[in-house]
Design brief:
By secondary structure, this protein is α/β, with parallel strands linked by helices. It has helices spanning 14-17, 20-27, 64-72, 92-98, 137-148, 157-162, 196-214, 216-221; strands spanning 2-6, 32-36, 50-51, 61-62, 79-89, 103-108, 124-127, 181-182, 185-186. β5, α4 (92-98) and β6 form a beta-alpha-beta unit. The longest helix is centred in the C-terminal third of the chain and has 19 residues, at 196-214. The protein is elongated. It binds ligand 4FV.
Length: 222
């Protein structure tokens, strides 16, 4: 899979996407990415990419031309997704859907937003949550992380297991590791029974209990 990020802050991406599982996915040739900066498409001698809002009001607005040119420079074909609080809520189902794509373009807004007329250049809008970020970059990286880890071969077998949650409609069961007693608190003895059926049964019950307690909405959905 290839992802092109349209962003005014390309320096933000390598530290995050170059590390851990996504870094490894790139090394394994399962994932590649690049950044396209609208500033490189500004015809303005000062490489201007934002301007004051018509009708007044605080802040600045991203100009349509440099942004449209940057998106179009990636070429026809890829699905173009604009990250914004007005978008459809991003979730596990959407991650699975996007993981089937060959190419994605993730467009990162900044300032108060973008000139509304450039929305026609985007195929869809996605939001990672009902709050306002300073830019779409973090949201784009969240989407990239959740999508790339769904690409076959990116996660090792044992890593893959943990990404089942949500797909099963339930939250994950609680995990424990050494020491067996920590600050006087024991690990549930069922996990030492060696009886895998009993352990799986205990985990299923624990996952349902956790979901009922923390995310009852998921249960109604499940
Ligand atoms: C956002 C979100 C988000 C809004 C103004 C960028 C910022 C600035 N993107 N999910 N929540 N974007 O807050 O995706 O342009």
């Amino acid at each position: 899979m290839r992802i092109d990020f349209v962003t005014l802050f390309p320096e933000m991406f390598e530290p995050v996407l170059g590390a851990s599982i996504l870094g490894r996915a790139r090394e394994k040739g399962l994932f590649e990415w690049a950044c396209v900066n609208p500033r490189d498409f500004s015809e303005d001698k000062h490489r201007k990419v934002d301007d004051r809002p018509f009708g007044g009001g605080p802040g600045m607005v991203m100009m349509a031309e440099p942004l449209a040119k940057a998106v179009e420079s990636v070429g026809k074909g890829p699905r173009v997704i604009f990250l914004s609080p007005q978008g459809e809520r991003f979730d596990d189902r959407k991650a699975a859907e996007l993981a089937r794509e060959e190419r994605l373009v993730l467009v990162c807004g900044h300032y108060e937003g973008v000139d509304e007329r450039v929305m026609s250049v985007f195929d869809e809008e996605l939001s990672i949550g009902d709050y306002v970020l300073t830019g779409g970059e973090l949201a784009a990286m969240v989407v990239a992380d959740a999508v790339v880890r769904r690409i076959p071969g990116v996660l090792k077998k044992d890593e893959a297991a943990e990404s089942e949650s949500f797909a099963s409609g339930l939250l994950d069961f609680p995990q424990y590791t050494r020491p067996r007693v920590w600050r006087g608190r024991e690990v549930p003895e069922q996990l030492f029974s060696g009886d895998h059926k009993k352990i799986a049964e205990w985990r299923r019950k624990a996952a349902r209990a956790a979901t009922r307690r923390k995310r009852p909405d998921l249960l109604s959905r499940a």
